[in-house]
Specification:
Blueprint: H1 14-31, E1 33-37, H2 38-56, H3 60-69, H4 73-87, E2 95-102, E3 109-115
Antiparallel strand pairs: 1-3, 2-3
Helix pairs in contact: 1-2, 1-4
């Protein structure tokens, strides 16, 4: 049973799973929308919304945490310069997941993670 389990394992150990989520978050902040499987999108949504909430405080320590998590400096700069002004007053729910159907090769359910404007 999965009682009190708080995240999906995505068939990976903790290191590759963290690397995958860092890559997805970095790509999201660079492009404002990514297409991936539904399960990965749900996990990336948790990470992205947590980073946006941290970035809203604009402390130096939280800014360093956000930049340390993201893989490129441009993604962090884009988060602070373009994404935060758009979602600054929202109390949460910065992203949405739109299901797009099945992938042709293996039948995995696909989804788009995008920024709510």
């Amino acid at each position: 049973m999965r009682h009190l389990k708080d995240h999906r394992k995505l068939s990976k150990s903790s290191g590759p799973r963290r690397a995958l989520l860092r890559n997805l978050a970095t790509s999201f902040f660079l492009k404002s929308r990514i297409e991936t499987t539904e399960e990965k999108a749900k996990e990336a949504q948790r990470v992205v919304e947590e980073l946006i909430t941290k970035a809203k405080s604009k402390d130096l320590s939280t800014q360093r945490e956000v930049f340390a998590f993201l893989l490129s400096k441009e993604a962090g700069q884009r988060l602070y310069s373009t994404i935060l002004p758009k979602v600054g007053e929202r109390p949460g729910g910065y992203t949405r997941i739109v299901k797009t159907g099945k992938r042709r090769g293996d039948g995995a359910s696909l989804a788009i993670l995008e920024l709510v404007e």
